[in-house]
Structure to design on (257 residues):
């Protein structure tokens, strides 16, 4: 579905044994850890140990990639990350549309981290006619009337929904009908989608509620053993629902069902 470019020469990937392909993610994980620590080069022995692989096997595997390292120096970590990512198809460019360019949509559009991970913001879409044509993160916002054409023209398979909750399902249906098969949903609503469509939901308030739950537990442990145990009080959803406060004077966190 995505019209991404790939840099992978077909002849080379055909020549790589399956067992080597199966080890590439192990090397990549170890190399990514080195890269994050800004380690420039690594010997085959060090990398083999980090990946849990025999070093002779590693050298043979890398020879299929055309990567032989430099005697006395080892392998260039960044280049090897690139080479393996390319073989695994991870350097493919995924065009993404963001629908709903308010506070959140604009922040996402401005986030530079997508591009370095292979996700290109192909278009920004909003229902507000006043926003049409205005640039956000250098990309002109387009009206929702154009949604189907934008998806088709850009070969988009991934859509991000950052509209109010009430609009999300309808936006989702239009995205799916236009050919989108993966949705990242920020709106606080459960989307229903047909088989074959993947939805990932991001909800920071749920994450905060989980942290609040643990904070409450920690606070409880600290006060445990101190003189009096407070009288039984409602906790969780029941307390929040009737507005009563928990034992420590805080409104207890409501855990999602
Ligand atoms: N998941 C999270 O952690 C998280 C965090 C913050 C906000 N949110 C949610 O993200 C959404 C956006 O929040 P915000 O603060 O950016 O809101 P906002 O009001 O600033 O922006 C919403 C935008 O959506 C547009 N819009 C409305 N209906 C539309 C439609 N049918 N098609 C296209 N665009 C449409 C509006 O014109 C507006 O520009 C809300 O649902 C909010 O609850 C989620």
């Amino acid at each position: 579905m995505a019209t991404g470019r790939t840099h992978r020469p077909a002849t080379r990937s055909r020549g790589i044994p399956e067992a080597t392909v199966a080890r590439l993610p192990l090397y990549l994980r170890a190399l990514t850890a080195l890269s994050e620590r800004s380690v420039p080069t690594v010997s085959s022995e060090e990398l083999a140990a980090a990946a849990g692989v025999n070093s002779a096997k590693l050298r043979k595997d890398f020879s299929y990639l055309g990567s032989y390292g430099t005697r006395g120096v080892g392998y260039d970590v960044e280049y090897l990350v690139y080479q393996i990512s390319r073989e695994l198809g991870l350097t493919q460019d995924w065009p993404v549309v963001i629908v709903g360019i308010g506070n959140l949509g604009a922040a996402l559009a401005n986030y530079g981290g997508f591009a370095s991970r292979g996700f290109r913001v192909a278009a920004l879409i909003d229902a507000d006619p006043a926003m049409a044509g205005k640039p956000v993160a250098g990309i002109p916002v387009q009206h929702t009337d154009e949604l189907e054409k934008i998806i088709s023209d850009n070969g988009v398979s991934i859509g991000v929904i950052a509209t109010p909750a009430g609009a999300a399902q309808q936006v989702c249906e239009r995205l799916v009908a236009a050919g989108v098969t993966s949705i990242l949903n920020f709106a606080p609503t459960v989307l229903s989608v047909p088989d074959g469509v993947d939805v990932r939901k991001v909800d920071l308030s749920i994450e905060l509620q989980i942290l609040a739950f643990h904070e409450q537990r920690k606070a409880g442990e600290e006060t445990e053993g101190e003189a009096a145990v407070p009288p039984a009080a409602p906790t969780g959803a029941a307390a929040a629902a009737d507005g009563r406060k928990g034992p420590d004077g805080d409104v207890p966190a409501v855990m999602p069902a």
Summary: The domain at 94-202 is CATH 3.40.50.720 (Rossmann fold). The pocket of nicotinamide-adenine-dinucleotide is lined by residues 99-105, 125-128, 144, 162-165, 167, 171, 186-188, 202-204 (CB under 6 Å).
